[in-house]
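Listing 4. Sequential folding, example run.
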Amino acid sequence: MTKEEVLNAIRLCAKKLHRSPTLDDLQAAGITRHHVRRNFHSLQLALASAGLLVRGLGFRLPDSTLLLDWAEVARKLRRLPTMPEYQCSGRFRTQVLIHHFESWQQVPEAFARFAHEGKAQDDWQDVLALISADNSGKERIRHGKELGSPSPVVCIAGATGLWTAIAASGDGA
């Protein structure tokens, strides 16, 4: 089997599964471990060559992938996401971000550095403004002025995954 045939088979398998295939998935589709290793040396390299996101145990996601996903959630919510909000709306578990950036509180700062270093601040001005506002809010709290808290979030599990429902703040009416 040629390299191109293996790539096409991987893409087809991924399309059917709606995710990146494992070696067992490929085996079931007629692509042996030998075909993968002979042409790419590893499944990770084969998946990356096919243009697929490589994730799961043993695959380290690039910081940029995690930060861009976090920023998309912040943009959607129009505020920095809490851990439960990100868990419901993001593509990755919060523990993955904590592992990469040492704590949840470090993620906004890491995104700001990423945006400035990658010259992407124009594309992400709205999210960078949220980060800046959050940092100034922390300064007000540090100086004894209290801010309103964000609305609580409820995750609702459904047959196709998780949805985020933002509870309305107020007197319960």
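-- end of first protein; second protein begins --
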Amino acid sequence: MRVASNRQKIVAIAILVVMASTLILGMFAQLASSAPVSSQSTPAIPTEQIQLAAGENFTCALLNDGTVKCWGDNANGELGRDSTTDVGRVAGDMAALTAITLGAGRTAAAVTAGTQHACALLDNGGVKCWGNNASGALGQGNTTDVGDGVGTLMSALPVIDLGTGVTVLDIAAGNQFTCALLADGKVKCWGENQYGQLGLGDTNDRGDGAGEMGTNLPAIDFGTNKTATAIAVGAESACAILNLGEVKCWVEITMASWVKATQQIWVAVGHPLSRLRLRST
């Protein structure tokens, strides 16, 4: 009888332990369910700048979603907003800054800024430029500014005609002229040519009149079997790294323009120019 009594005590104790454990777990569950839940959602990943390009008095940024936003002086439509209102002078301007219209479904892969114009290399290999077009730097076959709300609207801006089936790999803008590195290693420049900055052996502007773009715009002659792998543009000068590692520059070469162009090339190739053979044409 004493053994049975001990067993009964053990069973009773076990039952009490189980009941106590269940009660404690229930209390913790109730506390957890009644704890306040934060109403804040997971913060959105901010849109970041992946490339900046600065003109004379304005700046453009390429964002990681492929959009482009510009701010600063807008006298010639260089901000691409179909107006001539400056942006960034008034509180709240930057928070309300909208992206440039690049065309239906189009995004930018690169952006460049000249003195008073800017260009975007599109995701499909095309190029669009806006701003001051006094010398044809926008490549539209006229001298009408784009983006100022008076001339061509950004929504109606066509891709620059550089020839049938041409794909652009890189773009660079200077003072009233623009250069493009094509997928086949050729380089074409258009716009102001007062100092020969288009590299065509003359001083005739290109892109400011009908019939000057497309296949009628010659590529720069670098020599037999020589193609470009990178380009850089100064205010009135331009340079290209060629497939054999040499550098060719053309136009009026001042110390300032040479330093600017060669600094851009140094960034493009990632090594000092002292390792390259420098030549000018």
